[in-house]
TrEMBL record, chain B:
It is a multi-pass membrane protein. InterPro entries: NADH_UbQ_OxRdtase_su1/FPO (IPR001694), NADH_UbQ_OxRdtase_su1_CS (IPR018086). The gene is nuoH. This is NADH-quinone oxidoreductase subunit H. It is found in: Cell membrane; Membrane. Belongs to the complex I subunit 1 family. The keyword DNA-binding does not apply. The chain crosses the membrane at residues 12-32, 81-101, 113-133, 154-174, 186-206, 242-262, 268-288, 300-324. Keywords: Cell membrane, Membrane, NAD, Quinone, Translocase, Transmembrane, Transmembrane helix, Ubiquinone. It catalyses: a quinone + NADH + 5 H(+)(in) = a quinol + NAD(+) + 4 H(+)(out). Its EC number is 7.1.1.-.
């Protein structure tokens, strides 16, 4: 418990004039830096557009640097009503930086006016700014000066308008009926054709003519609708351009039209192999806004199900990873195991893939009778299966030959590209938020963070088997020490409020009625919550304008930077190595495109 | 009935035998498509096709109906003549190679002195199916598949021939019946164990079966050389692969496991049982192994298999010379 207090205290210290803000003020002058009080748990600092590059360079190169550009996106502020203490702004760009050595974050914000939506690109400082800036251009129409390929990223190249702007409708019913003519189809298909010159690629070198191979969006090993165009010399990949957006469903836009409560099911579908894991960062962020502290039982249930889904997701990974290496059987075995997990999940949540089971201030129901017996059955089943996978597959000479020293990268490269989760830990850094910034009571569990050393495709596979073992340990502790108590917090904003109390008197009845019809009203503020999800760090950055709906929901997903990093890793390898690498990343396209 | 001389009778019998073997090989190839799926299901904790007919036995009929009635589409960008020719070569070359295989002492199509060489010739022609099919499709994946097939063939045809020379030396003949007869006391798998290992590997490579399915490598090339094929043309590639499997199994049985030789049971039953066991091995390979990278595959052929076959041939030759009765 003492650890929690210290973490919270530390994050508060960061907000109130922390060392980073002081250092920034020394660098940029008192006037150049304006702090904003938020519930994000990190200093949020407004700086001017002209000082942006200087501030980022300073933060990146300072001792104990902020080496990770964790997130970059924008907010359309034009309809925001409650902006006390913030500079005038129509569109705000925010840069969320993370320092590994400090285990601290900082957020820089830049205000832009409507007639002048332009600011410098920071690709030269943080290489992973590339896709983030393209996304901002795509969604808000903000121009990044000096960006080499400022094209549409998530929307089709022919798209008109900027979807995340507030004046862009969110519902299909607000548009004219959609028609697709033959000419229209031709136009769309032409627009999708790859143009090497636009990407600075040559069609031939002095002695070879390159082949441009369009891998995806329909390809057995693309793990969903993912397209990557390869520039090939024989089977050697000279260069490649990943193309995403085929799975884009506007999850962030939907956040602006759903109530705080009714948005929970959308989060499940972001990383669709992670189930309730996706609910967690969202409800944690909402609970920060609502100032709800959940009972121990809720925390433990959440941890237990999160870990169960982590195992489930890792099993899916393991099966498909080996399948991509050409081994056709393991996927059937891991699906047998997943079915065992689903039996427990079904009994507890009543659903399989997308239980949407966490609630603001608790979980949907209490655990059913006999859940512990079911869970114990799963815990007893898994270890011998994991041993079998290790013996049959990870010790297999062909698997090792296909993955050892393939698509390897170092910790520095991983951080520069924003790689998190098991893929980062495979390079040797033990960055696991469950240990580094415990949430939901993880500090009370006894588990280890597996770390590998080579950062290659083999390590990325092996590390996930170890992680499953650790997750089993955590679940065992949940089963052994499940605290008694309520499954919902006793708080007026808990949604939906406990039904048993609804009929007690008129006050509780009205609260219940309002919360299930309108939804809870949260005070205007900003909050951010990051968790160690199945594939890396998943973050929800919520902006409330004091209404029943979010003003802006920013979802930072781990798979997005992981895909962006592919060209850097895979240049000079063979097509088979690309397939091995794709299998080892563990991504789902919904987690990339949102 | 004066025309029914003993010679005409002989011809008629030979023709009907050939026809039965041809149809039998075809049918067995087709049946294997279903047997493989059932076997994979068994090993992968699932059922496999079990709905059509008792225990899924009529799945083959359903598959044939479907594949025969499917639109036979030729892509407009394909080289038409070669595109049509490729699957014909693929299936015909392997079927023709069945000629040389003696099923029992009396059954068989061709009893040639060059028996084994004919198989090499047909295996050599077979690769043109993949090559032409992949090239004429006008598809980049197919082209990559064809390229891989060519590279793989170069690496594996070389030692495939050499791996059998030990057998030929021991039997003193290319004739398949002579080879079987020479195994009367001892199956050739014992003196020619390394020859067996290398020929098995080369045999899997000839049929493009996993883990030598580099030309089609579903996870990488999304079916490679036959990606543009549909309907019965695809069916011919598909069945051709299984016929190849049966052929190679039957060949291995003939060359290393004494063909029809065996006690108590009739010769044909022995032959069939041995062949079936090898077919199961083919399926088991597919169920259990990951796919190596194709450049590793090539270097394995050149660096491991080729030297091994050469050493095997040297040792066999030396042993024959040493053990030969003096004066011959």
């Amino acid at each position: 418990m003492s650890q929690t207090t210290s973490t919270t205290a530390a994050s508060r210290e960061g907000v109130a004039d922390g060392p980073i803000v002081i250092a920034l003020k020394q660098r940029l002058g008192e006037q150049g830096v304006r702090e904003q009080a938020t519930l994000t748990g990190m200093p949020v600092v407004w700086i001017s557009r002209d000082a942006l590059c200087e501030a980022l360079t300073f933060l990146r190169d300072m001792p104990e640097p902020f080496e990770v550009l964790f997130d970059l996106s924008a907010i359309d502020e034009r309809l925001r009503t409650q902006r006390e203490g913030m500079p005038e702004s129509d569109f705000t760009i925010f840069y969320h930086l993370l320092s590994v050595s400090r285990n601290r974050d900082v957020m820089l914000k830049v205000a832009l006016r409507e007639g002048d939506l332009e600011l410098p690109s920071v690709i030269s400082l943080y290489p992973n700014a590339d896709w983030y800036e393209r996304e901002v251009w795509d969604m808000f129409g903000i121009v990044f000066r000096g960006h080499p390929h400022l094209y549409r990223l998530l929307m089709p190249p022919t798209w008109q308008g900027y979807p995340l702007r507030k004046d862009y409708p969110a519902r299909a019913t607000e548009f004219d009926p959609y028609t697709l003519t033959v000419e229209g189809q031709d136009r769309e298909q032409r627009a999708l054709q790859f143009d090497p010159e636009a990407w600075g690629m040559r069609r031939e070198s002095d002695d070879t003519e390159f082949m441009f191979l369009n891998l995806g969006p329909n390809h057995p090993s693309a793990h969903g609708a993912f397209r990557i165009v390869l520039q090939l010399d024989g089977e050697v990949i000279v260069d490649c351009v990943p193309d995403i957006g085929y799975h884009h469903r506007g999850a962030e836009k939907m956040g602006e039209r759903q109530s705080w409560h009714s948005y929970i099911p959308y989060t499940d579908r972001v990383d669709y192999t992670g189930g309730v894991v996706n609910n967690l960062p969202y409800v944690l962020a909402v609970e920060k806004l609502a100032d709800i502290e959940v009972p121990d039982r809720v925390n433990t249930i959440r941890v237990m199900l999160t870990e169960l889904f982590r195992i489930n997701s890792h099993l899916l990974f393991l099966g498909t990873y080996l399948q991509d290496l050409g081994a056709m059987s393991p996927v059937f075995y891991t699906f047998t195991d997943r079915q065992k997990a689903y039996e427990v999940i079904e009994a507890i949540t009543g659903f399989r893939m997308h239980p949407s089971w966490f609630r603001i201030g608790g979980v949907a129901q209490d655990l059913p009778q006999g859940w512990d017996r079911l869970m114990q059955g799963f815990l007893d089943w898994m270890p011998k299966r994991l041993r079998e996978y290790e013996r049959a597959m990870m010790d297999n000479a062909i698997v090792r030959d296909r993955t050892r020293h393939i698509a390897a990268y170092t910790t520095q490269e991983a951080l520069a590209w924003g790689v998190t989760g098991p893929n980062l830990r495979a390079t040797g850094l033990d960055l696991d938020l469950r240990k580094w910034r415990p949430y939901s009571g993880y500090e009370q569990f006894d588990f280890e963070v597996p770390v590998a050393a080579n950062g290659d495709a083999f390590d990325r596979g092996w590390i996930r088997i170890e992680e499953m073992r650790q997750s089993l340990r955590i679940i065992q502790q949940c089963v052994d020490h499940m605290p008694a108590g309520d499954y919902k917090a006793d708080h007026p904003l808990t949604t939906p409020p406990p039904r048993e109390r609804m009929l007690e008197h008129i006050e509780t009845l009205i609260t219940h009625f309002l919360q299930v019809s309108w939804g809870p009203v949260l005070e205007a503020n900003e909050s951010l919550s990051m968790i160690e999800a199945t594939k890396g760090i998943n973050g929800y950055y919520l902006t409330s304008d004091g209404s029943t709906m979010s003003y802006r929901t920013r979802i930072r997903t781990p798979s997005f930077p992981h895909l962006q990093q592919i060209p850097m890793v895979i240049r000079g390898s063979l097509v088979s190595d690309l397939i091995a690498h794709l299998g080892s990343i563990d991504f789902v396209m919904a987690d990339v495109d949102r | 009935m004066s025309w029914l001389t003993p010679m005409v009778m002989e011809v008629l019998i030979a023709m009907s035998q050939a026809l039965v073997i041809l149809l039998g090989a075809l049918l067995l190839g087709a049946v294997m498509t279903v047997v493989e799926r059932r076997l994979l299901g068994l090993w992968q904790d699932r059922y496999g096709p079990n709905r059509v007919g008792p225990f899924g036995s009529l799945q083959l009929v359903a598959d044939m109906i479907k594949i025969l009635f499917k639109e036979d589409w030729i892509p407009p960008f394909a080289d038409r003549a070669l595109f049509v020719l490729a699957p014909v070569i693929g299936m015909a070359s392997l079927l023709l190679a069945f000629m040389i295989i003696p099923l029992t002492p009396n059954w068989g199509v061709a009893d040639w002195h060059i028996g084994l060489l004919f198989f090499f010739a047909m295996a050599g022609i077979n690769v043109y199916a993949v090559l032409l099919g992949g090239w004429s499709s006008g598809n980049k994946y197919a082209l990559l598949g064809a390229m891989r097939a060519t590279a793989q063939t170069l690496s594996y045809e070389v030692f495939m021939g050499l791996s059998l020379m030990g057998v030929v030396a021991l039997a003193g003949s290319f004739n398949m019946r002579d080879i079987v007869a020479a195994q009367q006391g001892l199956w050739f798998i014992v003196p020619q164990f390394f020859g067996f290992c290398t020929f098995l590997i080369a045999g899997v490579a000839v049929t493009h079966r996993h883990p030598f399915d580099q030309p089609e490598a579903e996870q990488e090339l999304a079916d490679g050389y036959h990606i543009e094929y549909a309907g019965m043309k695809f069916g011919m590639f598909f069945i051709g692969e299984y016929i190849g499997m049966v052929l190679v199994s039957a060949l291995i049985v003939t060359l290393f496991f004494g063909g029809w030789l065996g006690p108590w049971l009739p010769p044909f039953v022995w032959f069939a049982l041995k062949t079936a066991a090898l077919l199961v091995l083919f399926v088991l390979l597919r169920a259990s192994l990951p796919r190596p990278r194709y450049d590793r595959m090539m270097s394995f052929g050149w660096r491991v298999c080729l030297p091994l076959t050469l050493i095997n041939l040297l040792v066999t030759g030396a042993a024959i010379l040493l053990l030969a009765p003096a004066g011959t």
